[in-house]
Write a structure and sequence with these properties.
The protein contains two helices and no strands. By secondary structure, the protein is mainly alpha-helical. It starts with 6 loop residues before the first helix and ends in a 17-residue tail after the last helix.
Amino acid sequence: MLRSLVGSEMCIRDRHQMGREMEAVQQGHEDLLNHKTEQIRTLQNQVDLLEAQLTDLSGISSNLMLLQSKMADKEMSERRMEQALSQAQLDVEDRERLVESLEQEVETLKAQLSHSSERLAVVEESLQSRSRELSEKFQESAEQQREMARMEQALTPVSYTHLTLPTKRIV
């Protein structure tokens, strides 16, 4: 039966089959596009979370600067106290207690500064890592979309009418 079909009949037959195939491919592309759109939304939410973390990081930086300022104030205060001690010629026991107290305060401030610096480093590392991951995902998504566009262009319908065999005309 199939061997007896002429080119135009085969074209008509194939057109219906290609229509169904094109609909299936187009549905697959729409599903893939919807999936990629959802991935982009997820990535945008992650970017928003990273921006919130960056805001938190700014707060930590402010606290770090405040601690540094307090430490500088304490050091200045310590210098003033030493001057006052030498001027008033306080006895040795009072000087030792005062110095010990100031050293404890300085150690406490150093510990706070160290902890804040470590936390800042961890957050910065996390943000950089996440930023690299998001950048890679965006690049992958863009490549997949370009590939889908190329695939759609490759699926254009083909006409078989130029393949029709000439027939003898009886006049």
